[in-house]
Model the fold of this input.
Amino acid sequence: MTGNRKMLRLSTVLASLSPSSFHVEIKKSSRGAVAVITGVMSVGEYTESSIELLSHSGRMNVTGESLGISVLEGRVIEVYGRITEVKLSYGKS
Amino acid sequence: MANLDERIFGYHSCKVDPKDNGKLLNSLLKLGICADVRADGKFSLRKRDAERFISHAGNRLHFEISRPLGLYGFILRARHRYGVFLALFIAVVIYVFSFGRVWDVRVSGNVKLSDFAVEEALSESGLSVGSRWKKVDKNVVENELLKSNPGIAWISVNRRGAVAYVEVIESENLGRQEDAGYPFSNIVADRDGVIEEITVESGSAVVKAGDVVRKGDILISGVIENENGVTFCRAQGSVRAKNVATVTAEAMRETTAKTPKSKRLTEYRIVIFDFSINIFKNYRNCGNSCDIIKENRKIALFSKYRLPIKIEKVHAVTYEETSYTRSPEEMASYAKRELDGKIYSMFKDADVLKLRTEGELRDGVYLMTARVVYSTDIGRERAIEIH
Done:
């Protein structure tokens, strides 16, 4: 597990306040960057270069290199690797 | 990569087809199971979550799961290997037993005194291999050693890890007579000689370099005459004189030679710190016709770092005595060895200035004579009796 505990706790609180939305915190790490994303309902696509995450109201596309996922408690996901782009879109389409 | 929690409480290494990564992650999210999932489908699952995951995703997802890994897995696999647990238990016992004890004593700075002599003296003062560091008071050890060993002028005991490093500075007057504690005394000659050097610390010199003295002559007087009359003191100093001595040694032509007949192990023990474990002991008496040989072997790592483990072996060696005739060369060699031994023991505290050796074979006996010119401290303290 690669999450920062303090960060995770804060993220979980924020997620519980707005369960229908994403909350993302990105920090630098030894592996490139770590993005802690809350409010994830499901994972669409998962490859080393792209990850698609779905929430109640939209989706998030993370692209980069050597990407990996850690699943944490409370529908929190940690994406790590060389993240180059994070794209957010509203709606199901 | 399993974290510490997983390594201690156990985990499974799992793999799914990378195409099913999404399904896997959704299952984990739904169940609230923490896991690190790589893009190639590999992930580790905590032991406590495995059952829940298998019951939920077992039918929906095809995945490979390893046997339990980590410490839990090791214990599970090795539960019937009693030797492993015994070894672990022994390791813990050794750790507890050896913790806080002196593992080795290393002596430095000694020239005339041997390491063994210093280690023995330290042992009597309470510092030896196996002593508990808590019970070793370095100041007490140092003071006791200085009190009991006049040959040591200064000592320092330092602890580095589990090893006691002992630095020693020896007294200059090693070999001189012990302090007699007289209030008033003279220094007198204990043998004849020609004075070479005189050093007076207190008292007045009676002789000078080049004087010939006889045994019993006063060399440094404790009686000092001055304008007010006579005062007494304790004479102190050293007087070196040159003397000549003759030492002889002989070797017989007919002799008996001892040839070892049998060597029997009578005792075998292992000493760890200050505890000894008797492995073998034979109480059979071999009488007077055998020699007892004690062998002490200290175990060292890389022949440098001594361990607090010692193996003690005692052998009883029986000999057979056979008569033997020496050749003239063997007689000379034997006599030379005997003579060297005598000279060493007689003049170990003196400086040998000149040595002349002669040998002669007469009536089956080889007689070797050495004329030794030596220089030594001939002064001995004698109390002054005042009536």
User: Anything to note?
Assistant: The two ends of chain B are 96 Å apart (CA to CA). The CA atoms of residues 184 and 234 of chain B lie 4 Å apart. The longest strand of chain B covers residues 305-325.
